[in-house]
Queue: 2 jobs
Job 1
Amino acid sequence: MPELQTEPPMTQRGAAETTVQNPNVDAHAQWKPRVNPWLIAATVALAAFMEVLDTSIANVALPHIAGSLGASTDQSTWVLTSYLVSNAIVLPLGGWASSLMGRRNFFVFCITVFTIASFLCGAAPTLPMLLVFRVIQGAGGGGMQPMAQAIMADSFEPHKRGQAFALYGLVAVLAPSIGPTLGGWITDNYTWRWIFFINIPVGILAFILVTRLVEDPPWIKPDKSKLRHMDYMGLAFLTIAMGGMQIMLDKGEENDWFASGFIRFFAFLFVAGIIGLVVWEWRQKDPLINLKLFRFKNFAICCLLMMLVGGVLNANTVLQPQFMQELLGYTATTAGLALTAGGIALVIVMPLAGFATGKISARTLAVVGFIMFIVTFRYAAYVSNLQMSFSQASWLRVIQMLPLPFCFISITNAAYVGMPKEESNQVAGLINFVRNLGGSILIAITSAQVTSRAMWHQQHLQSAMQSGSNAFTQHQQALTGFFSGSVGAANGATMAIASIYNQLNQQAQMQGYQDVYMELSWMSFGLVFLAFLLSKNRPGQGPGAGAMH
């Protein structure tokens, strides 16, 4: 067999192939950034913090914006909605955009767009102009979160990745918590325009640092042909779905939900857009969003868990200050100060949780975190009453923050386990997308549920306001006597009834919040069971290791 003699022996041929193939494989496997990865992490975290902060910093300034630009308060809420819709559409596009122009270039582009748009928002002379600039700002910000996370994931070795995600988790959790406080302070002491102007120096600094410190790994190479083959239908379906969902959630309670044709129309757009997106993207050879990643069991479960964790985080950030302002009479600044202790607790616990991910499996940490959620929400239901002190409110916020690092970091870490390195951009984009999606959904649901439960309790309590009730009669007579001394007997009786009704409404509202906290605790039981479905990875395991379908 002469042809066999022309080939080298099997061992020699294998060695020859190894010498040819291994350099690229080794270059990918052993690649490390040329600067300290913690410098890179701090740099991208700075940009991400600026962006996440803008999702909540304008909330308390809406009345000032409306008054300054001659708009109604209802119209000013579109300042939030326009940003969130644009942000939600761009979040999943990070994978495609980074493959088109390179991840670092896309990150720098997003910082540039966000910073310029921030200046334009601050200088906007009319509300329509402000909304246009907010859309542009949201588009720039939408690419920054997933790219920051993906850059961190690739800059650190797998066993150190949890510590890096601790820094990112601090950004993702702390920024929306302090946003309303910072926005209120700036608005009260300066003008609402500085809410946007403060992004300019931060954006310039982030631009300089990213261009100098961040580089793309060898497996990420720009491919300009992606522009010619862009999935425009996928983008259209995504835009319709996210626009419909955000408007439905933002305006649902105001328009009595599905009793309104306006809400039903946008609900239809949301459902139709989602169905079209899934069917279209699943069939595409080069999709805008790689939905086939959901065939990885761990990744699919992590997305569901992260959606619920994001929902809990954002709902908590709205519920507690709202409770303090509506029922305890706190100002926006005072309510924000009550949340400060929770931020300090996060700074302490986040690094500990990041260190723990290198020693303990993600599944175990997630289960522990969700059990802590159960305890936290039950405690919140117990302590949230009309006699709650500032100290109790501060401690409640601390307790609410403690589970988040363990849940956030462990789920983020587990999402990358078993995934190809080339998909890290898609993984980051989808994880951030579902977190924001969960936030929007749970904020709307919990706010509506507080109102619904308060109305139920109001009706229940009103049944006790009968003339035949001894307790009601005695309380009414005591108040009538108290008011009569200053306004006369007739007016005193009227004021007594008004005072009792006001107390009833406050009690009903308080019980509505307590009910929602209990409902969140029951939801946390479900999260514990879901966490047990995660595969028990080896601590420090990273992309490509032990793929789990």
Job 2
Amino acid sequence: MSNIQKDIIFPIDTKDDYLQVFKTIYYHLYSNSNVSRAEILIKDISKVLLYCLSVQESVGKEKSPDKILDYLKTSYPNIDVFFSPFELDDNHIKYIIENLSQVNIKDAPAHIIGDAFQTLVGPNLRGDKGQFFTPKSVVTSLIKILSPKSQDVICDPACGTGGFLIESITQILNQDKKYTGRLVGIEKDDFLSSTANAILEIYTRDNFKVLNENSLDIENPSIKSLLGTIDVIVTNPPFGAKIGIKDKDILKKFDFGYSWIFNKEKNCYSKTKQILKEQSPQILFLELCIKLLKDGGRAAIVLPEGIFGNKSLGFIWDYMRDKVKILAMIDCPRTLFQPSTDVKTNILVFQKEKSFKNDFKVSVAIHCGHDKRGRLVDNNGNKIKDDFIDIGNSYPIENGIWKEANIKDKYYLVPRYSISSNNWRDENKFDFPVNGFISIKELIQQDELQIKKGNEVGSEAYGTGVIPFIRTSDLNNLEINYDPTKSVSQDVYTKYAKLQNIKENDILMVADGRYRIGKTSMILNGMTECVVQSHVKIIKVLNAKTFSSFELLYILNQKQIIEQIRSLIFIQSTLGSIGNRLNELLLPIPVKNEKWNNQINDFAITLQERNKLLHKLNKLSYEYEL
């Protein structure tokens, strides 16, 4: 029988130590047992762990699985449904007992054990109904921001396996050493609610309840009794286009279950009497949080970015202005829930109080501790940065991590866009002397710039000729590297040539898409005969009073400008667009001294020489079909 004693240094007393014990057990069973499904392994390990923590006498390795189940069913009748027969065989059940016994798990603080086990459970369980488990650093950060007190009633109406609840009581116990409030979890999924119940039993026998109910069924007596009673809510509700709520009995109980129309005279949305055919669950959950909170109660909720910037959802913010005070918004990287989902999310923190103001704090997270593939280290073996650690630790101090919000449009509250424009006017952030700033809009108004969008030719035009059709994927590293298989015919080119009027030194910028928005390249010698895709903006310098084409291209690729462009992008679900917000882009006006002129001259020569070399290489290539 394998034994983890070789892998553990005694004594162990921290959460990370116990997490390593649980990981060792989990991965041994995953690789060597008769079971490989994560949820089954977690369920069986949970049973044995709960048994080992509960028995008064020393845990005997000879205990049979049937006797363990009998003991658990007697001791925990409220989660009897969780104690179905073991699917692991007897030897592997004994393996778990043996390894838990030798690290003296019974004498460990319950909140350390519960927190460690929850850390194992979250990443290894994946929901199939819009549930995406929240990364640990985000959980920790949100609880620090909400700062629940020892007497608070804390609720997660979409609790999954209870991660937010576990972290809440962990932070309280680390500070106050006692918790006199109550943890309330609500979870529709049978397995997840049972797992949450088991973990909370491991964690604490008192002060909690997990309801296996539909949170949105607010006429259910169990849910109805909670309305207006909660001090703190922290939740990551299910979201997705495929799981819309269609039950009219539920929709009619929510204001967001009805159609809203925009009243131009009042400049706001008004609720109609028309019940919707369907509503996204995350929108209903947002209203549910307000209904559950008592006056003065606080909430943090993870929401898709669409809610923050889709004009058709502006009614949400009109409703919120009458109900709550926003405390903070966090802009999340789109990698946050990858690889499970590519949906871009943000976090809203608010208080139930009729004093909506625009003086809340905003923070922007670029990194979340893993990449889009879920890897924790980069290609060089370095640990990927996690901005949520500093975000949670520093709230609400304005220290560069947190900034004051500046709302320009009451229906467009994307957090990174809501940062004051003064943050983009720092002359010291550039590696060249700056003599003020100018916006794209001002350059257009002064007839120095013209911006067009490209056109779609239709996939049936692909491969019909040799004229390049330049798409978003073709712009990379300041180079246009088009795909010959997408080239179009002379007729297609003639159709769009006058409309696009591509000239040498025009700048192309990706305006729509998934990841590449803001990428730029330049039309150079020998490249003017082409057609540009609709997702690409064509930027023409009409006169070089402020910027030449090469100067503008150089500035558009400065780190500070790329960060600013990011703040102007709106991501609806997984697709992003910069739209007319590009006009707001603030560009530094360089002091045109000798150093600057030499810098731009070197930049231009580099691009032109590379273009010449690429033309030579292209002449050597020959395309053929297999």
